Amino acid sequence: MEDPAELCMQAVECYQTDPKRAVALFTHASELGSPEGFFGLAEMKINGMGTETDIPGAVELYRKSAEMGNTPAMFRLGSMYTGSYGYPEDKEQCRFWFEKAAEGGIELAYPEIAAIYLYGYGTEADPVKANHYYQKAADAGEPQSMFMIGYMKTEGVGTEKDIKGGIDWFRKAAVAGIPEAQFRMAKAAEEKLIEGGDRVAMQWYTMAADKGFAPAKFNLATMYYEGRGSERNVKRAYELYDEVAALDDADALFMTARMLYEGLGTDQNMEEALKRFGRSAQLGNQLAFEFMTDLRRKQNTQFIKIDGL
Question: Is the pTM of this model over 0.90?
């Protein structure tokens, strides 16, 4: 009798060089009742390797494999039911199979089911369960989950509030390169929850800003503007504020408008400054609104036309 495990191994060895043969081998293994055969054939169908792309057919094969206890197939089913692969979204099925995969030890499933329970996707929100699975993912070394554990500890979500413990996890996530965690470490330094003060805060903000994290760019700009953590550098402050202002951020628009109005860190440009004050006010910045209101009181502003303000 042929060994389905051996057939699957042969298929894995040749699926890139001879995908049609791999399909035949996986098919034969599945005919012998191998869950790995069903899974392998599903992988070929979903990627259109050695056969036509057949997403519904792949889902049925994943289901057969999963129902026979194949945990990678459980994870794949959870992914399919998110609606991200051209297959109809099914929140309950998504939760069910991701949780099965997590229970089976698939580490990739831990943050998926954690997020499902945190936000109540297809089930009632359960922050305690979310914390449990994020912790498993964080313990397995998944950086974004390290950040989430830091968040949940510092905010007391699904667990007891533990500022120090949360910062410890933020640090691990920050070292792993998560910009949101680097931002949190900078804030902790500014608030004197960790040692180093403004100097350390500037280092963490710089790391997060270099990854394009807008809140870090804004706070780093403010440090340069105020001369905290380094010598004052209004030119660099303007550059950073301007990058955030390009995202239509009300506060950054206000700061760049002020600097343009005064010619601070950049060439003076009254027309552009007024446009930015106006846009900032429209987006809800109270200081910008007060500036524009005060300006109209002081002078004839018929020449100023700023998006209806």
Answer: no
- Give pLDDT tens digits for 35-83: 999 999 999 999 999 999 999 999 999 999 999 999 999 999 999 999 9
CA nearest to 135, candidates 145, 143, 121, 147: 145
pLDDT of residue 147: 98
Exposed e or buried b for every residue in 213-245, given b needs 16+ CB within 10 A?
Answer: bbbbbbbbbbbbbeeebeeebbebbbbbbbbbb
Residue type, 282: Q
d(CA 205, CA 179): 9
Burial classification of residue 272, based on how many CB atoms lie within 10 Å of its CB (0-12 exposed, 13-18 middle, 19 or more buried): middle
3-state helix, strand, coil in the chain (%, to 5): 70, 0, 30
Listed as ranges, residues in the chain with pLDDT below 70 are 1, 299-309
The token pair that represents 16 in the structure block: 């890139």
Tokens in use for 301? 């502003």
Q: Which of 33, 34, 32, 30 is nearest to 45 (CA)?
A: 30
| SS3 assignment, position 259 | helix
Question: Helix, strand, or coil here: 266?
Answer: coil
